[in-house]
Fold this protein.
Amino acid sequence: MKAPTQYVDDSVKGFITWSIIWGTIAVVVGILISLQLAWPQLNVAPYLTYGRLRPIHTNAGIFGWGIGSFIAMFFYITQRLTKTPLWSPKLARVTLWIFNVAIASAAVTLAMGINRTKEYAELEWPLAIVVAILWVLFSINVFMTILKRKEEQMYISLWYIMAALVGVTVLYVVNNLGMPLHLFKSYSAFSGTNDANVQWWYGHNAVAMVLTVPPLAIFYYFLPKITNNPIYSHRMGIIAFWSLIFMYLWTGAHHLLWTPVPDWIQTVAMALSIMLIAPSWGAVMNGYLTMNGQWEKMKTNYLVKFMIVGITFYGLQTLQGPMQSIRSFSAFIHFTDWVPGHVHMGTMGWVSMILFGATYYVTTTLSETEIYSVKLANIHFWLVLIGQLIYSITMWIAGVQQGSMLLATNPDGTLHYSFMETMIAIFPYYKIRAISGFIYLAGLIVFIYNIYKTFQKGENSPTAKAK
Amino acid sequence: MLEKNPVIFIILAFVVIMVGTSVTMIAPFKWINGPGDRIAEVKPYTPLQQEGRDLYMREGCNNCHSQVVRTLAADVERYGNGGGYSKSGEFFYDRPHLWGSRRTGPDLARIGLKYPDPKGAWHRKHMENPQSVVPASNMPSYAFLNQALDTTYSERKMKLLKFPYTQADLDDLKGKSEMDAIIAYMRKLGTDIPVKKAEAAVLVPAVLNNPYTDVKAVKEEAEAIYKQQCASCHGEKREGTLGPALKGSAKSDADLFKIISNGIEANGMPTFGAALDEQKIWKLVTYIKLDTK
């Protein structure tokens, strides 16, 4: 028998640690801005106003927590699926440095009001270039590891990983094209309606390539690992994969329904959005059917809970999303709080649940020990689940209420409610939403404590000391 | 083969991604912003307006305010201000677009039509202390914009964006505050398009008879509407602040009805015909004249 391959995991641990730190900042800033919406006197001009803080919240969440932990998981998964150590451990360590410098600079510059205003592409051009370089270096490292692999077959997770590498690069570069004025200011390369169309081609596919494809790669890898059962159908995974990455790129304009973007682009986006239910549910069903005959693990294995509840939220998310892409429904809820409710089910429910489960698994594997406390992991699970449900449900109710008030007209065609009346009606929901943020944060703190204790336990274990 | 060759796989994945991208993102460049959707009346921003737009971006106003009136009846009624729904050509000079994705505050695509006051007194008061104008508002105070405008790059911006400008435009920047710039931008928004005056005006009935003669019956309701819609400019006690005093107004009920419905552009009085229905306006008229009734 050959000697076991030596995997290089210091950067995995580094990225896990830092992504959790940035993720916590995202949640804390999220709570602050949720409080500001209910109590505007909490805005501290000029650096801590809602307008400057909200991009910090989204960037810390998507890039800090999301991308950071995806990099960690991709390094981890790729090595194991290829039975090959990471191509360049040194490059991985450099990537971590660039990552932290980029996210920290993002937070500082956004607080200073240096931003491009394009959602999820707010960073000014020098920082955008740093992010692009970071992603390319990371991609090369992963791709080279795959090229030099010792395991010939490429498991479905590697497909998703490679698609994300290509997809994010194309999207990020195109939407960040601009004309620099000076170091801290540039203007978009596109104008008006063109700019809007490019932006939401990017915006929606950031959802695909950052918040769907990577967590799916992680899900497909860890669910079989956790349950000790192979995935139900590799073929279904492959069909779902190709249709998913084909269809997503058509759907950006469902963010632009009823606007001056040409009607046919809107209609095509609407149609393809509905069609996306099929590949999305292909992944959901693959997860559920893998559980056949072992559903009792929902009770006995805390990791299965995170994975299965996570994929369930993915299923709900990919039913609600297409519904919102229908013109008549969009007319009702677009521009209201329904949409943040939807987004946070995806981020806090689907993506984060999968990442929590994967992080627990990787932490115990790297530490060669059991989790510090299964009980705390269960408390963490329930706190983040309840926090997220309260968040999303209150925002859906607020969205429906405000949406119907905004559209209400009198018999003579005049509007029934003033804008302020519709806003006053949703203030109570803003306060409940802020509470839900605190519940979620409490869960996050339990999670961090548990992870920290597990790493500590690993360092103090006899095997670690023997090394 | 695909399961075994990552290079071919990655090329194929790229091709698949580019199909939808080409059709819905690249191809539309051929006609969006082309001659078909250009509007001759829409003019580029002046140096002061562009500075204001950059401040709007710096402060992240787009996180709460959209700038696109959808083709929905309620959108046109609420935000159109007589300009109808947004047309593609209106955004030709916008780099980037600022359509936004959430209306925590109202849409601003036609805000220039809503407050026609040339001095921008409403905007100034509102930016400095939003709650003094709209008591329940959750907008932060932007009083800190009362600082000198940095004009170092103003001319270079015009050149980069290829906007025409004159020396007078640049001279106009002298001594201006950031507040002046952002108000100049607010006042420009939506004003270029040809507005159909007939559409902007609310059709008033031929015979204007106030159905509410009993002040007591309407006082409570009308007072609430007054506080929400009128008090910010005409004072809590109708004593007049930004707008004239209304106490003891000598105007006839019919005249007041017309003014509230259609506004007085020259004086900066906005129109309320879309925000309030006929019954509410009559109740307001009765309330305004409660001392004389």
